Amino acid sequence: MATPAFLASSLPYLTIPDAVSEGGAMAEERPPRLVDYFVIAGLAGNGGPIPEETWVPEPSGLLRPPRPAEPITDVAVIARALGEEVPQGYTCIQASAGGHPLELSAGLLGGTQPVICYRRGRDRPPLVELGVLYEGKERPKPGFQVLDTTPYSHSANLAPPGPGHPRTYLTYRRAAEGAGLHALGITDLCLVLPSKGEDTPHTYCRLPRNLNPGMWGPAVYLCYKVGLAKANTLVYEAELLGRYPEEDNEAFPLPESVPVFCLPMGATIECWPTQTKYPVPVFSTFVLTGAAGDKVYGAALQFYEAFPRARLSERQARALGLLSAVERGRALGGRDVRTRRAIAVLSRWPAFPAFRAFLTFLYRYSVSGPHRLPLEAHISHFIHNVPFPSPQRPRILVQVRAEAEMSPYDNLLLCQPVSSPLPLSGASFLQLLQSLDPELAITLLLAVLTEHKLLVHSLRPDLLTSVCEALVSMIFPLHWQCPYIPLCPLVLADVLSAPVPFIVGIHSSYFDLHDPPADVICVDLDTNMLFQTEKKPLSPRTLPRKPYKVLLATLTNLYQQLDQTYTGPEEEASLEFLLTDYEAVCGRRARLEREVQGAFLRFMACLLKGYRDFLRPLTQAPSEGSRDVDNLFFLQGFLKSRERSSHKLYSQLLHTQMFSQFIEECSFGSARHAALEFFDSCVDKEMKVAQRMAQKSAAMPELWARCLLGHCYGLWFLCLPAYVRSAPSRVRALHTAYQVLRQMESRKVVLPDEVCYRVLMQLCSHYGQPVLSVRVMLDMRRAGIVPNTITYGYYNKVPNWGEGWDGSLCQGCHLDVHGAWQAVLESKWPSGTPGGRLRWAKLRNVVMGAAQFRQPLRERRQRRQQPKQEEEEETAAQREAGSSQTERLSDTPGSFPPPSLEILLSSCSLCRACDSLVYDEEIMAGWAPDDSNLNTTCPFCACPFVPLLSVQTLDSRPSAPGPKPAGASGNRDAPVPGGPGPVLSDRRLCLALDEPQLCNGHMGVASRRVEGGAWAYLSPLVLRKELESLVENEGSEVLALPELPAAHPIIFWNLLWYFQRLRLPSILPCLVLASCDGPPPTPAPSPWLMPDPASVQVRLLWDVLTPDPSSCPPLYVLWRVHSQIPQRVVWPGPVPVSLSLALLESVLRHVGLNEVHKAIGLLLETLGPPPAGLHLQRGIYREILFLTMAALGKDHVDIVAFDKKYKSAFNKLASSMGKEELRQRRAQMPTPKAIDCRKYFGAPLEC
């Protein structure tokens, strides 16, 4: 077997080390390969003569006349009425495509009778595009020239004479100079008359402007065809020239049909004029489907090489134009012979962009040189040493060239596909939408659903596979069961005459010789045209109306966003793009890809909604006939449940092979059970509304912070049932939840969905609180949220307002009958007959009268309660006085006992890539709007990492805790949170207020049992997904069990962190205490869930719980050391000499004098330039802020004002040092997204 010239050096002698060979000992431990085979396809032969017989495809159908050998290079307009003749070499268009006579001026007096002519040739670049210009209404497109005069210098206006008719001219665009023999160009022109029943010919592009815009005469439209006009070509069937490795993989043998798919238009021998430039290699993709339905993905690169004349016979040479047709045997000069070949890779993964980059590199490598490494070494390395991305290595950057001078094409980035239950495919929904408008894409969806014969064609072979894969993927969960060939070779073109449905993609040049079959729907991706020969063409109007309108609106919106995501191939292949802009650009594309796919998925979910209700279970042992769809599915019942206007569509769909297979898989199970379960969840709740809301909010800093805040409130309301069940007064707990709801609304959070309102309505229904349910509904409507069926159902489940309801359900609700009915009376009253209005007026008067009668009762009740309220106010004042004395840190330490259990939480996490500490608001800003992504982004090095939530529990109780004294929780002198702060005269004690030894006025602490750990810090999006899964699997009761902290620590500690962060009431702190005490003695009631609040204290810290002794100490810790202020943790490591007290005082002095830029400069100068200088794990902004808070006290520092000063100082320093240098030395302030997160999540944490 012959080997191509550029691979002839050492391909047969490739050797692979034992460690990476097929049978090596390490083969089982290695991840799966990205590529399994490398092949070469072309014209076979060992240097001898080639066969005389050429291979020409002969599918059924009428043959078209031979295509022109030369493209159209010029177009002209002549005026017959002015005596102009057709120029020499030009062809005149005298009739329409249907043979009707043409007269553009419609026989009007004064008309010039314009006629369009064109000329073919190769003396100049061909025309590639035409247009029609209405003078005065628009400007010519860039690159177009206006044909405003005839060859005889008269006006080339095509419009009839007369006022009101815009002057109409042809415009054209020509290919660039030196485009070469293989440049696409216009190969044919025609005119169509729609009034005569003529339509655009197949594979032609029709201009939208009418050439006869006047009132008289029929409308005339110009159509042109773009193609590759070339002659002197011999076509042979491609064969395998070489492969690597030589032996087949048992699990994945090399298919025999690979060569014809690598060269679908055949292995050609062509005659070119001398000095013709080689065309750019053509990239194509294909899919091979096995008997079991498994797919093999291939990618090929077609190129030309020189072919020796000696291998041609006289007959072949004459056919190629190498011999004179007049003088027998005389060779013609100025001709070269070329042959077309291809290199390809085969894989089980559709990584087409990486395959394209690798094959392009091989081709460029082969035509350049010399090189130190042979080409075969790169092939061997790519096959054996480049794995498919895995969760351990989700991104792999491959540099395929070892030389110093690298091209942008020498880098390729492999990314692990997004984890999804949807089947993996090579589909590109963006290319589908770019090539076809939304209306046409939906028409193709209808054609696939009804199993029509579908033929997709294009001049770009790499587009066919991605579009065809999208066509079979958009009908998920249905699976296409008929013939499927995304890129069909000419040797297999007979499939177009098959009597079964199919989806086939083919090169548009096939139609240069053959007409399409009559019963096939043809889709031209280059002209955005669909050709149907049926009497009743397919119309998407037969689809269900509402899902169709939603799908069309969604696709139209996404179609308008596609132009903003385009980047050129050279830019995409550059190393700078891969390392910088790849995430942003490809992230936008991936988002749009998911949204388009999600739109089709939602449509299919609506189309098949409720199908499981009509599945028929088997009542007997399975037999041969039991797998019939009639025995497994109630077809007529399902059809009657659909809207009548769509019965025709459903009748066709229910009798397709793919629907029968779908029902069989649902009834008996299959390998696609995970995908089918996912579809069932989509049918129930369509798509994740919360994640879509998060994706929209992630682009705006303020919206992102409000979105995270809304998810946190959603988490609290998901835990609300457990909180209400454990509360001493469930009615009071419900009203507490309502106050949280009002607080949430006042903060203008971005709610992911209506779960907050729904949960509260459900609890109001369960505990008999109709008044509160009405208020929640009104608040929901004021917020602009329309309740869905589920929420409205919970609302309607409240007890009856009418007979038997006496207002007893509102006892303890702080509401009365008047307030309850007022919610109804303020609503819009129904209008109708006068009798109806009269009855409503009577009812209104009765209600208002009852409310007036109850008013004296309320006043009497208030007078009785007034002495009791005064006594309570006096008691509260005494308690406040005692609290004030406590907070002034009296000289009698130990007068109040410390909490039995103290919990310390910190989300500050270390980025190991740059050894920097990332704080809570920066972690929030770096999260992605994805409920499956645990990573955040480091603000210093932009590397993704998983943040950790550090936890320490300090238990001061004895080993065997006994019963507490009865009055322990009723101490009137206990400190009240939020009371006045300490006097500022005692500076040392004031600054030590935040320390645990002093925060409760207790200087000495007994020995404590310290336990700690760290768990993944989850974004509210991820945490909600995990919480919903936990509640769904184990019930909401699990959230009130003492075993929760040990059984689900990640969920528990994250919930505790967020609830404490937002100061939301919860039972979670008590669960920690209960988990230490063991199981409760009795199942109900649950007093252990509501212990003395003073016995558990939760503190949220801004900085790390345990400092790293090998790092440089933070400045605020050094300040407390120098000031001899007691601290929670003593610094365990050495202290650099340069970080002296004088330095700290200088920094504070500059900050106090509003000279923050001098403080920054002083720190940068003291630390020194990296990497020789001191390395602080905290940024300069964080060091100065923490130092200021430690010196002045947290309550005496306005962080908003500090941020403004720091930003001004940063800009001032950037003018002299440069922003990039300041960023490298980590002197930048947090991003606007981080600042907004800190703003919306409340006051700063403890330092």
Automatic annotation (TrEMBL):
Residues in MABP domain copies: 69-228
Record PROSITE patterns: DENN (PS50211), MABP (PS51498), PPR (PS51375)
Entry annotated with the keyword Phosphoprotein: yes
Domain UDENN: 220-674
GO molecular function, one term: guanyl-nucleotide exchange factor activity
Pfam families: dDENN, DENN, uDENN
Keywords associated with the record: Guanine-nucleotide releasing factor, Phosphoprotein
Lineage: Eukaryota, Metazoa, Chordata, Craniata, Vertebrata
Protein origin, superkingdom: Eukaryota
BP-aspect Gene Ontology terms: regulation of Rab protein signal transduction
This protein's name: DENN domain-containing protein 4B
One GO CC term, this protein: cytoplasmic vesicle
Region of interest (Disordered), residue spans: 856-896, 954-978
Entries under InterPro entries matching the protein: cDENN_dom (IPR001194), dDENN_dom (IPR005112), DENN_C (IPR043153), DENN_Domain_GEFs (IPR051696), MABP (IPR023341), PPR_rpt (IPR002885), TPR-like_helical_dom_sf (IPR011990), Tripartite_DENN (IPR037516)
Database matches in Gene3D superfamilies: 2.100.10.50, 3.40.50.11500, Tetratricopeptide repeat domain (1.25.40.10)
PPR repeats: 753-787
